[in-house]
Amino acid sequence: MLKGQISIKEGYLSIIHEASKLLSKKNTLKESLKEILKILYSYWDAPISFVALYDKETGKIKITESFGLTKKETLKGIFKKGEGIVGSIFKNELPAIITDIKENPRYLNRTNLLKRFSEDMVFIGVPIKVGGEKFGVLGVYKGKNKNFSNDDAVKMLATLATLIGLTKKMYERMEEERKFWQEEKQILLSSLNKDTDVMDGIIGISDDITNVKKTIMRIANADSNVFITGESGTGKTLIAKAIHNLSYRKDKPFATINCAAIPENLLESELFGYEKGAFTGALSMKKGKFELANKGTLFLDEIGDMPLSLQAKLLNVIQDKEITRLGGEENISIDVRIIAATNKNLEKIIKLGHFREDLYYRLNVLPINVKPLRQRRDDIPILIDYFLKKINKRHHKHIRITNSALKALINYEWPGNVRELENTIERLVVLNDTKIDERDLPDYINNRDIKDVNINDIPYKDVPFAIESIEKQQIQNALKETGYVKSKAARLLGFTIRQLDYRIKKYDIKIKKF
Question: Where in the sequence is the domain holding 407, given as residue range(s)?
Answer without folding.
Answer: 375-506
